[in-house]
Automatic annotation (TrEMBL):
It comes from the Bacteria. It comes from Lentilactobacillus parafarraginis F0439. It is found in: Cell membrane. The keyword GTP-binding does not apply. This is Threonine/Serine exporter ThrE domain-containing protein.
Length: 163
């Protein structure tokens, strides 16, 4: 039987579709409003694309998850203002592709099999990834607060020049 080799572009597009559907699917599980599902899927895709680009160019697992979380956090707040909805509706489904589920599974499996050195290796990866994503969200909140403050100061400056 011969091996089927898939075109890398087609494989990448399949990954993108699956990431988009995972965002929508998780949104359905947590009862997201139907008018927010499509945007939540695109937010998941955008965060994963940032992750994917960084992981394939720089190769850092922590930095890729940090910037993916940062992108999801910043875009979620902007979408929430645009749609007049809470930003958490777009944060949670956006995180689904970044969650270290495989490493968490391997951690539990290694503990159950008695392979403690591998289990602690996987556990450190889970903690590193989760911490990077959380730090990305913290920085996203900071970026959004700075963006709001700068916009407010610019409006005040324009008003004072017009008077």
């Amino acid at each position: 039987m011969r091996d089927v080799v898939m075109n890398p572009v087609v494989f990448f597009l399949i990954k993108c579709v699956c990431v988009y559907l995972s965002g929508i699917g998780f949104g359905l599980i947590v009862n997201l409003p139907h008018k927010a599902l499509n945007i939540a899927g695109f937010n998941a895709l955008l965060g994963w694309l940032v992750y994917y680009i960084i992981i394939t160019t720089w190769g850092g697992l922590g930095s890729a998850n940090f910037f993916g979380g940062l992108c999801i956090g910043v875009v979620s707040v902007m979408i929430a203002r645009w749609k007049k909805m809470p930003s958490i509706l777009f944060d949670v489904p956006g995180l689904v592709p970044l969650v270290p589920g495989g490493q968490a599974y391997n951690t539990i499996k290694s503990f159950a099999m008695g392979n403690y050195s591998a289990a602690f290796g996987y556990l450190s990866e889970v903690i590193w990834i989760a911490g990077s994503i959380a730090l990305g969200f913290i920085v996203a909140e900071l970026v959004n607060k700075i963006r709001i403050k700068v916009a407010r100061d610019l409006r005040r400056l324009r008003r004072s020049k017009n008077m």
